[in-house]
Amino acid sequence: MLQTAERTATETDFLPLLGTDHIEFYVGNARQAAYYYRSAFGFELTAYSGPETGLRRRASYVVEQGRIRLVFTTALHPDDPIAEHVRLHGDGVHGIALEVKDAARAYQETLRRGARGVREPAVFEDANGQVRVSAISVYGDTVHSFIERGDYRGAFLPNFVRVEGPDPACRPAGLLHVDHMVANVELGEMNRWVDFYERVMGFRLYQTFDDRDISTEYSALMSKVMANGNGRIKFPINEPALGRRKSQIEEYLEFYRGPGVQHIALATGDIISTVSKLRDQGVEFLRAPRAYYEDLAGRIGCIDESLSALSELGILADRDDEGYLLQIFTRPVEDRPTLFYEIIQRKGSRGFGKGNFKALFEAIEREQARRGNL
């Protein structure tokens, strides 16, 4: 029934999205940021743009793993808007680029439904072909770009040059694709952005969690998951709920200075192998207490993976009517307690680990307490 509903939604979708094209970060030092993701997360450096390619005010490094493409961009002059973005927010996600068949139509359809445009449709070209790009504003200083690249054969975009391999810093970890991206918004703003994605982008409400689902003794939040017509793009949207102490959402909003991308979930086909490699390469993960694993088998039933291996690595497990999933969360990857990553393996489940929320949030609160922010 769900597959039929998704097929019908795709057939009537006024904004058909082919997938996540790339995620662009504005950072203080793109060379160093790209190196961290290459050496720690196993991405490969594939393309570069900067003064050597004709861009005088910025430099960008493109890294890839599986179908995941990340772009790290830094300003070369202090008066550049990128520098102001970094001054305000620290390193963080500026743009979520979505691949489409028609960037001009995507722009027109979203503006007609109430979006604010930040880049009118434009054509960029070089010897490798053409790319059409447009963009709209979403929460905070985040933008959605629409990328039409069906006629392009280059490494990434015009003005980028291919970086020939092998990459000496790259240690692949088995990451496959972006599973979902989570936004944090202010109290009372979640439903506004739910309405935006429904009305402006044709998304549908996929799942809802309230403060009864996501709470601890001290804090709580509410979340609604939005999905596009074909289900390839999922954007959970979080807002804080009233609690005895400062929630992780409030901490994020305070340090990021407003709404933004809180975490990115990256899929793997073998979470035990992936997390083992990432941990060996320096990625730091949150840990659930040992007690979490004492009755894990009773909670989730029979699974293919070794429970002792899950416990050793700190991987969480949850089951629903369609199967189970395995997930783990990194500590923040910036000095500000803002962006972090989720590594997820799905074995049938299309949920988000509802049964793990309490253990996860208690682990996050322990980190907040260490920072003096709980």
Write structural notes for this entry.
The chain is α+β, with helices and mostly antiparallel strands and 374 residues long. It is 26% helix and 34% strand. The protein contains 10 helices and 17 strands. The chain has helices at residues 2-11, 30-41, 81-89, 103-112, 190-199, 248-256, 271-280, 296-300, 307-313, 357-371, and strands at 19-26, 44-49, 58-65, 68-75, 92-99, 117-126, 129-137, 143-148, 161-162, 175-184, 204-209, 220-227, 234-241, 260-268, 316-320, 323-329, 340-347. The strands form 2 sheets. It has a 9-stranded mixed β-sheet with strand order 6-7-8-5-1-4-3-2-9. Strands 11-12-13-10-14-17-16-15 form an 8-stranded mixed β-sheet. The longest helix is centred in the C-terminal third of the chain and has 15 residues, at 357-371. It is globular, with a radius of gyration of 20 Å. Residues 1-10 have low confidence and may be disordered.
Short account of what is shown:
The chain is an alpha+beta fold.
Residue share in helix: 25-40%
Report the end-to-end length measured between terminal Cα atoms: 43 Å
Instruction: Order the strands across the largest sheet as they lie in space.
Output: 6-7-8-5-1-4-3-2-9
Name the quaternary structure.
Answer: single chain
What is the overall number of helices? 10
**Shape assignment:** globular
Strand-and-helix sequence, N→C? HEHEEEHEHEEEEEHEEEHEHHHEEEH
Poorly predicted regions:
1-10
Q: DSSP strand (E) fraction?
A: 25-35%
